[in-house]
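Researcher: Next entry in the queue.
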Amino acid sequence: MLIDRIIDAIMAVILAASVMIAFIAVVFRYVLNSALSWSFEVSLILLTYLTFIGSYAALRRGAHLKVDIIANMLSPAPRLVVFILAQVIILGVSAVMMIWGTEQAIKFATQTTTILEMPRGPIYAIIPLSGLLMGIDTMTRMIRGIRRAARGEAPEQPDDSYDLDR
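Model: Structure for this entry, 166 residues:
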């Protein structure tokens, strides 16, 4: 899907920027004997964005850790209950990310980073945004699973992951 390709491109750019900054920082520190004061702070910001964007990408692909061997052995009704329970837990985590992340973004909006002196609010804004996207994806997956169960199919199927290789 197009959104997955966009997310992958964003993550690739962030990762490439992180590697480039780390490499430049090492060259400056050990070759030129002059440390870059801003490199650690920028790397930390990029890592934060990569973590939360990557969490959303992993959820879309069904790549988060799960143990579904027991659920797969259940009959349809209990399997649907386990599926819905798992989705509700993910929605709860998404809600916590949205609520706490919004509080953090607002709380730190007026504070600045130590070296770059940029506002911290935009750094924390990725948390509620990621939670919102994860919540939307989970609701979509849950509705699709309930519809499948109503047709007598398994609620979660391999095509639920948005893996580009399938």
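Model: The chain has a mean pLDDT of 89.
Researcher: Noted, moving on.
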